Each structure stands twice: as C-alpha cells, then as structure tokens.
Automatic annotation (TrEMBL):
Keywords for the protein's UniProt record, in alphabetical order: 2Fe-2S, Cell membrane, Disulfide bond, Electron transport, Iron, Iron-sulfur, Membrane, Metal-binding, Oxidoreductase, Respiratory chain, Transmembrane, Transmembrane helix, Transport
Coiled coil spans: none
Taxonomy of the source species: Bacteria, Bacillati, Actinomycetota, Actinomycetes, Kitasatosporales
InterPro entries assigned to the protein according to its UniProt record, in alphabetical order: QcrA_N, Rieske_2Fe-2S, Rieske_2Fe-2S_sf, Rieske_Fe-S_prot
Pfam family, one: Rieske
Protein name stated in the entry: Cytochrome bc1 complex Rieske iron-sulfur subunit
Entry similarity comment: Belongs to the Rieske iron-sulfur protein family.
Amino acid sequence: MSSQDIPEENLPAARDTGHGAVKVADEEHPFADPGLPPHEHRVQDIDERAAKRSERTVALLFTLSMLATIGFIASFVAIPVEKIVYIFPLGHVSALNVALGVTLGVALFAIGAGAVHWARTLMSDEELTDERHPIEAPSEVRSKIMDDFRQGAKESQLGRRKLIRTTMFGALTLVPLSGVVLLRELGPLPENKLRHTLWSKGKLLVNMNTDEPLRPSDLITGSLTFAKPEGLEEHDHGFQNEIAKAALMLVRIRPDDIKDKRTMEWGHEGILAYSKICTHVGCPVSLYEQQTHHVLCPCHQSTFDLADGARVIFGPAGHPLPQLRIGVNDEGYLEALGDFDEPVGPAFWERG
C-alpha cells in the first residue's frame, strides 16, 4: 500500500530531524526513521561482582597467551628438529612443528578471545548515531572526535581495570617474541660456515659410487665422475648438510681444449674438479656434454663451460662453479690442495 492509499486523517504529523529524515511518516516522507531500540543493560553494567568475574576471565585469557608464548619459545629451543611423534589422526609428524603450531595458535587465540570478551562484557555497548557530514572536517567535528575518543577511553575502563591492563600489555609484549625467534632461523648468521667445506689440503677424492679413493687412471677423457671428501660417510650424522657443500664433480678434458691457464694449473693432467652445486638455487649439476665440455643444471638450464673455468654461458646462474685445486699424493691418489676458491652454491647476503 502506498502513502497515497492511506487516509489523510490517519497520517501523523511529520517531524523533520533537520537532515532530511523524519521521525514520523507523511505523504512527502513515507519512510520514517525508526531510531534505535531502547538500550538494554548487561548484567556487568549493574552488578560489579559480574564485572569483576569478566575482568578475571579476560586476565586469565591474556595470561594464557603469555604462557603459550613462553611454551612456543621453549619448544623451539628444547625439541630437536628430527624428533618424530605419532599423533592420531595425523600419523607420524614432526614434534617441533606440532608444538610450535599449538603454542602459537593458543597465544594468538587467547589474545583475540580476551579482547572480544572484554569488549562484549565491560566496554560500553550503547549504540550512538551520528548524522552524515561533508568530507571536510570542521574544527568542531575534530573537537567532537577527540571528545569521543576520550569518552571511549574512559568507557573502556582501561585505567580502572588495572589487572586487565597489566596482563594485556604482558601478552602483547610477549607475542612478538615468537616472530623474533623465527627470524633467528630464516638464514645463516654472518659467519664463515658457508665459506668453508670439508675439503682441505691432503683430503683424498673418494668416488661416490665405489667409496674408493680415485687415481688419475680411473678417469678417462670425456668422463664425468662424482666425488666426496675422505672420511665423509653416508651414515654419519650431518652427512646431508656436509655433502650439500662438498659434493664434487670431476671431468677429464684434453689439456689442449682447456681455455683458461688458471683452470689448467688447478687441475692435474686435464682432470678438473668443480663444485656440483649450481650457483643459481643450489640444484645438483649433472648433465655433461663431452664434445662442448658444457655441463647443464636440470632445474633451470644454467649452463657452465668446464673448459673455461666453469663460467656461465647460459641461464640464470650468477657466477661460475667454484673450482677445487687438486694434485696427486705420493701413493698416486688424487687429493685436494685446499678448499674451494669461492663459497659454493647460490649467492648470500654476506658474500663479498
């Protein structure tokens, strides 16, 4: 039914609010502003004991967040990375990952739950209306905003509820420590651990397949062989970490085909030793083309010329494969004459 169908005697007098809206409908303004329903007080508004119970609940949640954050840090320090546990229905999972996930989740959830419970039970819940105004804020509006802010701060009872204030600040202070602990392990510290490998003067070159020391006669021209340092065994603790830096690639090239004098001097009778770790993102380089003396990384097609100091001739790699200087000991075995000339693998912040 439209307003025109309503008998005129039944239409109440219209009352203009001053902003184009009316409290009571009429023919010109058929849709009235119903206004806000009457405010209903919560039990905490009228019973201080209920308010105290809510305060203790909020403080308990904030305290739980602090304890969970401490548990997060303790788990990170105390639980070994390799520890595996069985948890139904997840199966066998990393104990460290589970502990970190649970403690951090509880810490964040407790802060959020405490803030929500605080707002719903103790902060003022009386609805206020404000008419629309131009985008430009006059001075009286800015003054009103500051007054509203001060009023909101007063109604939040932050100054009055010291227990909530103290525990909230404690929870918000401790939670960022979780991120600090995680940042500690995002990358290597500026030390020399990426600049050195197990290779050193006198270390024998051991065949990765046969686990036997290599002699020059074991390598034929055009061959590609992978080697590891003497004393590094697959069953050793930390084998993967060490071989990721020390993996060696041996090729034998006719001396006349070697283009760089330094490359020749660091080899032995055409046998050249290079890091097997690609300098792009660390993939193992293994695809060798003996006619061109090029080796290809299968991950992103970086190509290196082994006859010319393993310089990059194609692909995203940023620098050549590091070369290992080798020689032959008194027993006729190939040995290292030092460590790699450059840090192996991809670039890193502290690399000069």
